[in-house]
């Protein structure tokens, strides 16, 4: 039986970076899925990195991890949350990965002595990544990173241009996301940057089918007339997307402006009207008045860019929505805790320590975990947050110099040590314990109670582990190991005895949280703050 033709939607951006292509692409996908379509989504980035694992979180934000262990751009997190699906490594492709593949193929003699060039070899490899990811889906959405006109992004633009030409007009739709600046002096929105951005796309050989215009505030509908005239798209193919109170309003905005209707008509897809009940209910829940609030101190180290912990914040928000509670949180610099003492944490209902790498700020995190262990203040530790909690527990149990091999490699009291298969890989990318791993929970433990199960799977991104040689000291400090790998060699969860809520995991549960189905560890954390 011949497979029906997959339809493609290519999302590009103009005027400036950070305009909201990821949310726009995810929102289009969410509405199409609400129409009953089988939708996949992919990010194609122009960086020469092989993956996002070695990118500086202070510059690029969170490194998101898929079930199969791909280290990706944070947009994959948007995609998973909006489409409520688990993506794979095929949904994240960087230029460096493609170029390495082409060079490896050349070295292996695949091209049989031909001159290897950007066109056709690199372009063809890019198209293969796109088409392979699209197999088996009704619609495949491709977000092209960067801004049209960037030198490093020209290959991806050419790849989607050629692909659209080959697949045919009714099998591809091009969505261009632009920005509308507002001039306070003249009190008007200006369309010239958007017009120029469309011109840049046309100069690259692509005529957009849909224009989404982002703005800081609500632009008048008459703006569409100018964008239509100079952008060369029908009035009904233009969507105005002002800043929303919540990013989860965007799918409803797309649907209300019937952008999805225009796209399915262009692609000649026969489909039902979107069932947006879930999205309407979610936004109703988000906007509800709530009398109770919880205040959380997030003791972290990468504070130059709030997107570094995007999934953590979204998991907290989703949990608070489910508990009809307002979320208040502060970023607390771990180095400040080390310098000024734990008293700066007294004003918070609970403390969360997220992931991280390196020695900077770790001592402050250990102090924060120890403070919660001593005082009974609620604590949730994620990845590094588990490691610092174990160190705090071991010190409390009498091992005063307990530390991590990541901080003091030569210490004989490293209660956190590097896994044997990770030695020598400390400075290389893509070599950590990555992706989804199983864990066995202790029956009747706090974590088993939260998961309502003793067999769970969570996503990981680390290379250091708990050294079970120091188990007695750790337990003497008030901690118990409540979850391990199925073979019993690796510690996955810890918790404190006789404590309101003190739970930590070596995993990154934030990656599996969804706005409509928050993660049980985060829900348990928020409940503990409400009931304190």
The number of helical elements comes to 18
- CATH first level of the largest domain: which class? Alpha Beta
- Biggest pleated-sheet summary: 9 strands, mixed
What is the distance, rounded to the nearest whole angstrom, between the alpha carbons of the first and last residues? 60 Å
Q: Per CATH, which architecture of the largest domain?
A: 3-Layer(aba) Sandwich
- Write down the Rg: 25 Å
Widest sheet: strand ordering: 13-12-14-15-23-22-21-18-19
Number of structurally distinct domains: 2
Fourth CATH level, the homologous superfamily of the largest domain: P-loop containing nucleotide triphosphate hydrolases
CATH topology of the largest domain: Rossmann fold
| Estimated share of beta-strand residues | 15-25%
Shape summary: globular
Total DSSP E strands = 23
Return the average pLDDT rounded to an integer. Answer: 93
| Helicity, as a percent range | 25-40%
- What structural class do helix, strand and pairing data support? alpha/beta
The low-confidence parts are: none
């Amino acid at each position: 039986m011949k497979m029906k033709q997959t339809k493609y939607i290519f999302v590009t951006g103009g005027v400036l970076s950070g305009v909201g292509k990821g949310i726009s692409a995810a929102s289009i996908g969410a509405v199409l899925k609400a129409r009953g379509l089988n939708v996949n989504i992919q990010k194609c980035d122009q960086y020469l990195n092989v993956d996002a694992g070695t990118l500086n979180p202070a510059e690029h934000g969170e490194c998101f991890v898929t079930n199969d262990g791909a280290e990706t751009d944070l947009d994959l997190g948007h995609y998973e949350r909006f489409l409520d699906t688990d993506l794979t490594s095929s949904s994240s492709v960087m230029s460096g990965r493609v170029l390495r593949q082409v060079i490896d193929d050349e070295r292996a003699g695949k091209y049989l002595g031909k001159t290897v060039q950007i066109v056709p070899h690199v372009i063809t490899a890019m198209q293969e990544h796109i088409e392979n990811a699209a197999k088996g889906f009704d619609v495949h959405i491709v977000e092209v990173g960067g801004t049209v006109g960037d030198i490093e992004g020209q290959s991806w633009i050419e790849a989607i241009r050629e692909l659209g030409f080959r697949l045919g007009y009714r099998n591809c739709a091009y969505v261009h996301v632009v920005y509308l600046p507002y001039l306070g002096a003249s009190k008007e929105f200006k369309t010239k940057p958007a017009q120029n951005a469309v011109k840049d796309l046309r100069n690259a050989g692509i005529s957009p089918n849909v224009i989404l215009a982002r703005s800081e505030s609500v632009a008048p509908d008459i703006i569409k007339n100018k964008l239509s005239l100079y952008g060369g798209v029908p009035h009904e193919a233009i969507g105005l997307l002002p800043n929303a109170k919540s990013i989860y309003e965007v799918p409803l905005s797309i649907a209300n402006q019937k952008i999805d209707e225009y796209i399915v008509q262009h692609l000649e897809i026969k489909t039902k009207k979107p069932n947006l009940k879930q999205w309407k209910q979610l936004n109703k829940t988000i906007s509800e008045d709530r009398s109770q609030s919880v205040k959380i101190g997030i003791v972290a180290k990468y504070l130059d860019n709030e997107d570094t912990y995007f999934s953590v914040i979204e998991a907290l928000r989703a949990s608070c929505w489910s508990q009809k509670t307002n979320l208040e949180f502060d970023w607390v610099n771990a180095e400040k805790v080390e310098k000024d003492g734990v008293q700066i944490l007294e004003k918070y209902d609970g403390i969360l320590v997220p992931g991280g790498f390196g020695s900077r700020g770790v001592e402050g995190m250990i102090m924060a975990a120890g403070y919660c262990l001593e005082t009974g203040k609620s604590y949730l530790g994620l990845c590094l947050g588990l490691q610092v909690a174990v160190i705090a527990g071991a010190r409390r149990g009498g091992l005063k110099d307990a530390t991590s091999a990541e901080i003091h490699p030569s210490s004989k009291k490293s209660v956190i040590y590097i896994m044997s298969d990770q030695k020598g890989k400390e400075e290389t990318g893509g070599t950590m314990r990555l992706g989804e791993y199983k864990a066995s929970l202790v029956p009747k433990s706090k974590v088993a109670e939260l998961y309502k199960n003793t067999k769970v799977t969570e996503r990981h991104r680390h290379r250091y582990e708990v050294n079970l040689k120091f188990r007695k000291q750790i337990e003497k400090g008030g901690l118990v190991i409540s979850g391990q790998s199925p073979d019993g060699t690796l510690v996955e969860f810890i918790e404190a005895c006789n404590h309101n809520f003190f739970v930590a995991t070596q995993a990154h549960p934030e990656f599996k949280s969804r706005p409509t189905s928050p993660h049980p560890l985060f829900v348990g954390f928020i409940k503990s703050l409400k009931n304190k």
